[in-house]
Amino acid sequence: xxxxxxxxxxxLPRSALLLGAELLLLAxxxxxxxxxxxxxxxPHGPIGDWRPSRALVPVAGPEVLASFDPFFRLQxxxxxxxxxxxxxxxxxxxxxxxxxxxxAIVGLxxxxxxxxxxxxxxxxxxxxxxxxxxxxxxxxxxxxxQLFLDQSTPAAAAPAAATPAQPLAPAVTPAPNAPAAPAAAxxxxxxxxxxxxxxxx
Length: 201
What we know:
Radius of gyration: 41 Å
Shape: flat
Order of helices and strands: HHHEEEEEEEH
Strand content: 15-25%
Number of strands: 7
Structural class: alpha+beta
Largest sheet: 4 strands, antiparallel
CATH architecture of the domain at 86-148: Roll
Number of helices: 4
CATH topology of the domain at 86-148: SH3 type barrels
Helix content: 10-25%
């Protein structure tokens, strides 16, 4: 059995260039590791004028179900809706039925329009309480009032498309010096077409 030995003189010499490249790569890895730790430890940066969000209206719990019958709601009758007398106009509604939240675009008395979330104050003493399909409920002094979308004007009708059977003819305007064309003859009737065909034969 022959034993192979490793001759130290047979190794490739480690050059200073290779050692320098290894040290450079090791330094780059160390710098990138430090940057990673620094990125994870510090916040992203300035976030602007931060204000805490307003308190949200809590979603009602099981005690609400004890106050009314959810299956036969129309029997008890909650009375007619009280329409608000405030100078407000409802322009749009965004309703989230899953959470009971939503928002509404309301026109204010000064002529501006703003979006309000449920629970936000529209005017002093007036808050947006609930968002429905075509109206919102506001609370003014603890009294619920409703504001409806304006549906008195019908939506604009879409323009009728030209049917393929009747293509539109381009409008032709005569030249200013051109003589007027003779009036087109009336469309021939079935009897006139028979006479023309008979004369042609």
